[in-house]
Amino acid sequence: MLSVKLPDTAGKTLYFPTLQTCQQGQTDWSQIPKEGQDEESLKSPAPSVTVTEAEAGGDGHTAHAAGTESSATESSAAGAQAASGDDGGAQARSWGALAAGLGGLALGGAAFVRGRAKNGNAAARE
Fold it and tell me: What is the pLDDT of residue 43?
């Protein structure tokens, strides 16, 4: 979770110039559009956030200068609900996967013990 204090100016766009480093080089995402310039025309635009008016009601956070926190929370909750409740069987599949994993662990342990016992008997015969 990210928590920031945003300015009270609705419509203001904040830019966050970023240097992205990867195994095969880096990209400097620092281009900020000039007045009237389309951000899409830039090769490496800086990430940005546009401040919006706060929405009254809902979660009771009317003192915030921007609706981004409420919107992000609502979007996260909606995404989590969609991911977990897609067909109602996600929890059953999770338990099934856990049972299969534990069964595999038990079978692997049994094979290990049998192998050790077999090797022990062979060593005793020699």
Answer: 93
**Residue whose token pair is 């079978």:** 107
pLDDT in tens, 25-67: 999 999 999 989 988 899 999 999 888 887 776 555 545 444 4
In a domain, residue 10? The reply is: no
**By the 8 A CB rule, do 17 and 45 touch?**
no
Number of domains in the chain: 2
Query: What pTM does this model have?
Result: 0.41
48 within 8 A of 13, measured Cβ to Cβ: yes
The answer as to whether 72 is a domain residue is yes
Residue 13 lies in a domain: no
Say yes or no: 125 and 96 in one domain. Answer: yes
User: For residue 64, what are its two tokens?
Assistant: 């915030």
Closest C-alpha to 20, from 44, 39, 38, 4: 44
